[in-house]
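Posting this for the archive.
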Amino acid sequence: MATKASRSAARLMMAPAVILLLGWMLVPLTMTLWFSFRNYLPLRGGDLGWAGFDNYTRFITSSAFWPSVQATLIIVGAVLLITISLGIVLAILLDQPMWGQGVVRILVIAPFFVMPTVSALVWKNMFMDPNSGLFAYLWKFFGAEPVSWLSEASLPSIILIVSWQWLPFATLILLTAIQSLDSEQLEAAEMDGAPPLSRFLWLTLPHLARAITIVILIQTIFLLSIFAEIFVTTGGAFGTKTLTYLIFQRVLESQNIGLGSAGGVYAIILANIVAIFLMRIVGKNLDA
């Protein structure tokens, strides 16, 4: 049992890391809040004084603001749906005994370790190029006209690229959860004559509830700030401009750090709203 002295020593040893972590988070946040109320144009005179809520008003009344929020939520929702659905299927398949099981698992998980810019470039040039891409050759083979994916189906293309990146993560988490399932329950259900679909719906899926909520929470945190894939492929055109990309674009075009900081505050608010909603779901599943 920990004594008062040992607890004090533990807090003392943890204090430097906690202080560093708080500083790492609070200093950028404080600077973002400060600049969001300033007319700060580094290439046009620097700090031009107090702006009040003008930056916030300009950003939210922009014609691109709500479409960017909509695009962000569509990408997040679609990627979550694809990665969780396919992740469950892949996790079940990878849990079955097969020849070269270890190699197959490594190959399935490998895309998660590819940098977003690299994977986006690979998809853009090797798969989705309307002239020399793999999809173009497949379309021509079946006698169809090749599709210019990044202009004609831009948002689905981004969703496909991001889903390919995050599917290994979901698969790994769900595979770990499946391997922790009591095999005796499945064997008992099989002996009682329960078909495979019933065993999945009433045994496997409820057991995966916690893993699914964790996947949703972690992926959403990162997907809300998606940027590299859009920058490399569409440049924010054709309806693929997310809130993060809009912030980048506003700062780049106007060279107004204050305007971009106001957009950053809106992004933080959106992320917290989604996080609170997801934490409620996670809390319910973990308490169940």
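The chain has one domain: 64-287. The chain has a mean pLDDT of 81.
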